[in-house]
Design brief:
The chain is of the alpha/beta class and about 300 residues long. Helix content is about 40%, strand content about 15%. The structure holds NADP nicotinamide-adenine-dinucleotide phosphate. NADP nicotinamide-adenine-dinucleotide phosphate (NAP) binds next to helix 1 and strand 5.
Length: about 300
C-alpha cells in the first residue's frame, strides 16, 4: 500500500504554520502536492513562509490567511475569509499554541478568557465549529495537538473554577490544562462528528527543537534551560512527519478519537481525560464561552 493517499490538490489548513512544526508540516504537505493554507497572526512571517515553501517545493498553491487564535473576532474573520474562497477542507491542523511560560499573572483576552486557554483550546473549538460545512464536504481529518509534558501531571483535571486565574495562576498549569482540554475535546468531537464523516485525532508532541530566536523574550535562566532541553529534543521536521501521517496515511481513513505519539502509534492519555462527565462538562462550558449551540 502507498505510504500516503494522493494529496494532490487536497486543501490543508494549518494554524501557526509560520514557524516551528507547523511550518515544516506545511512544507511536507506542499511537497505532496496539497493546497496549503498557512494561518498566522503575523503577516510578515506568514507571507515569508508561503514564499519559502512555494519556492522550495515548486508548489504555487500555498496561501496566507491571517488569524489570531486568541480572539474570537479574529477567528470569525478568518473562518469567513476561508469560507468565501474555498469549497471544502480536507485537513485542518490546530497547531498554533501559546506557551509563554514567563507570564507571571493571568492575562485575559478581549473576550475575557485567560489567554493560553483561549488560544490553545477555545480557538481550535471555535474554528472547527465555524468551518464545519467545509470540513464535512471535504470528509476532513482534523488534528489537535497535545503534549508529552502532560505525563508529568497524571492527576491534572480541568479546574473549572479557576480557569481565568481567579484563585491562583501558573502559566505552566494553564498550558497543560489547555492541552488536556484539547484531548478531551478530541474525544467528544470524534463522537459528535462521526455522522458528518469528519475524523479528529490528537498528537502527543514530545520535546521538539524551537526555531532560533523564538525565546528572545523569555528570562535568561529559562533560555539556558531550553538550551539544555534542546539536546534531548527531536527536530520539528521529524515531528511534522507525524502531522503528515495523520493527515495523509491510508491506514487512518476511518480512525477517529485516538491519540498518537511521534512514532505514529496509538497511545492512551490520563484516566481523567476519558471521564465522560468531565468531557461533557468541558464541551458545554467551551460551547458557552464561544457562544456555539450547534454542531
Ligand atoms: N516544541 C515543543 O517542545 C513542544 C512540546 C509539546 C507540544 N508542543 C506543541 O506543538 C505545537 C507547535 O509548537 P512549536 O514547537 O512549533 O512552537 P512554535 O515554533 O513557537 O510555534 C507555535 C506557533 O503558534 C503560533 N501562535 C501562538 N499564539 C498564536 C495566536 N494567538 N494566534 C495564532 N498563532 C499563534 C505561533 O505564531 P507566532 O510566530 O506569531 O508567535 C507559532 O506559529 C504547539 O501546539 C505546541 O503546544 C510543542
Amino acid at each position: 500500500m502507498e505510504k500516503y493517499l494522493d494529496m494532490q490538490g487536497k486543501v490543508c489548513v494549518i494554524t501557526g504554520a509560520n514557524a516551528g512544526i507547523g511550518k515544516r508540516a506545511a512544507f511536507q504537505l506542499a511537497q505532496l502536492g496539497a493546497k496549503v493554507i498557512i494561518v498566522s497572526r503575523n503577516e510578515g512571517s506568514g507571507k515569508k513562509a508561503v514564499e519559502e515553501i512555494s519556492k522550495e517545493t515548486k508548489n504555487n498553491h500555498v496561501y496566507f490567511f491571517k488569524g489570531d487564535l486568541s480572539y474570537q473576532a479574529s477567528i470569525k474573520n478568518l473562518a469567513n475569509e476561508i469560507i468565501a474562497q474555498w469549497n471544502e477542507i480536507n485537513v485542518l491542523i490546530h497547531n498554533a499554541a501559546n506557551f509563554d511560560l514567563s507570564m507571571k499573572q493571568a492575562s485575559l483576552t478581549e473576550d475575557r478568557v485567560e489567554t493560553i486557554f483561549a488560544t490553545n483550546h477555545l480557538g481550535p473549538v471555535l474554528l472547527t465549529n465555524l468551518l464545519l460545512d467545509l470540513l464535512e464536504k471535504g470528509k476532513a481529518r482534523v488534528i489537535t495537538i497535545a503534549s508529552k509534558g502532560l505525563l508529568a501531571y497524571p492527576l491534572m483535571r480541568i479546574d473549572f473554577n479557576n480557569l481565568n486565574g481567579e484563585q491562583s495562576y501558573s502559566p505552566t498549569k494553564a498550558y497543560y490544562q489547555s492541552k488536556l482540554a484539547q484531548l478531551m475535546f478530541t474525544y467528544k468531537a470524534a463522537e459528535v462528528l462521526k455522522t458528518k464523516g469528519i475524523t479528529i485525532n490528537a498528537i502527543r508532541v514530545p520535546s521538539v527543537q524551537l526555531d532560533e530566536g523564538r525565546l528572545e523574550h523569555v528570562p535568561a535562566l529559562m533560555r539556558k534551560l531550553y538550551k539544555v532541553k534542546r539536546k534531548f529534543s527531536i527536530t520539528p521536521e521529524k515531528m511534522a512527519e507525524t502531522y503528515v501521517y495523520l493527515a495523509a496515511s491510508p491506514d487512518l481513513q476511518h480512525v477517529t478519537g485516538k491519540y498518537f505519539n511521534e512514532d505514529n502509534e496509538i497511545i492512551s492519555s490520563s484516566k481523567y481525560s476519558y471521564n465522560q462527565v468531565e468531557i461533557d462538562r468541558l464541551w458545554e462550558y467551551s460551547n458557552e464561552l464561544i457562544q456555539v449551540e450547534q454542531w
